Structures are given as C-alpha cells and as structure tokens.
Amino acid sequence: MSAVVVVSIVIATVLVFAIAAVIVGREARRLDSVAPRAVYELEQATKFVADHLPASTQARVTYEELRKLLVFHMRWLHDHGLQPEGVVDLRQDIAQELIINEDTVAAYLLGAAEKSRIEILDDVDVIHIVQTHLDYFNAIGAIGPKR
C-alpha cells in the first residue's frame, strides 16, 4: 500500500472516532439533564401498597378504598406541583426542594376519605398507606432521596 492510502485510512479512522465521541458525549449530557422516565400505574400501585401494608391496616381497608386513597394522594401531589403534565424528556429544573411530610398528607387523606364516606382508618393506617405509596414511587424510580 502506498503511504497516501495509509494516511487516508488513518485520517478517516480518527475522523470517525472524533465524530462518534462528540455525538456520544452530547447525548450523555442531554440524558443526564432529563428526568428519568418513571411510569405510574394505578392498578400496579394499588397491588404494591396492598401487599406491603401491615396486616392490621390490611384488615381495615378494602382494595377499592385503598385505590381511592391512592388517587387522593396523587391529587395532593399534583396540587403541590409534584405531578406535572408533559414530563416526557422535560429538563430537570428544580428551583426549590419540597420535603413531603407524612402528617400533612395524612391529614389531607383523612379529610378526603371522610368526604368520600370511606369509613376507615385511623391516623396510623393512613400514615402506613402514605409511606407504602412513597415506597412504590421509590421502587419505580419516581422519587428523590429521603432526608
């Protein structure tokens, strides 16, 4: 082979590698700034929470009541900006941290349950439901770290 052919092959190889490195680097930065895709499925969440609740709470709440409470919890999250619409490939732009206090959510859920005539529960049951629902969010990768 002539020297010109060898140099051309080396230049082409370096050029292909450089282009690939730039593209991979750019995509890695883009994907790092995009929120992870966590898919919330109500039926799956209800089953997860029902399976992981303490036996005493399982005995006092029906599957349908639990499902309604999870919907109320999702509405509370939406009202506090934690369930925005159109989040596919949305850049993470967290301006301030929001720390979820189980007591506040529990109070909201007790009020919502009373309005819906769900005769349950005491405060401890609702806190178990909230904590287990948050465990489901963690399991699907939809929640940040606990502090």
Which tags fit this structure?
147 residues, mainly alpha, 2 domains
Tell me what you see in this structure.
The chain has 147 residues and is mainly α. The chain has 2 domains: 33 residues; 99 residues. It is 66% helix and 0% strand. The radius of gyration is 24 Å and the shape is elongated. The model has no long low-confidence stretch (mean pLDDT 81).
Q: Name the beta content range.
A: under 5%
The gross shape turns out to be elongated
- How many strands appear in the DSSP assignment? 0
As an assembly, this protein is single chain
Q: Return the average pLDDT rounded to an integer.
A: 81
Overall domain count: 2
Radius of gyration of CA atoms, rounded to a whole number? 24 Å
Span between termini: 65 Å
Separate helix tally: 6
Detail the poorly predicted runs. Answer: none
Q: Kindly state the percentage of residues in helix.
A: 55-70%
Following the backbone from N to C, one meets helices and strands in this order, namely HHHHHH
Question: What class, by secondary structure content?
Answer: mainly alpha
The biggest sheet, with number of strands, parallel, antiparallel or mixed sense and barrel status, is: none
Protein topology:
Blueprint: H1 3-33, H2 42-52, H3 55-60, H4 63-79, H5 102-115, H6 123-140
Helix pairs in contact: 2-4, 2-6, 4-5, 5-6
Can you summarize this structure?
The chain is an all-alpha fold. Helices cover 66% and strands 0% of the residues.
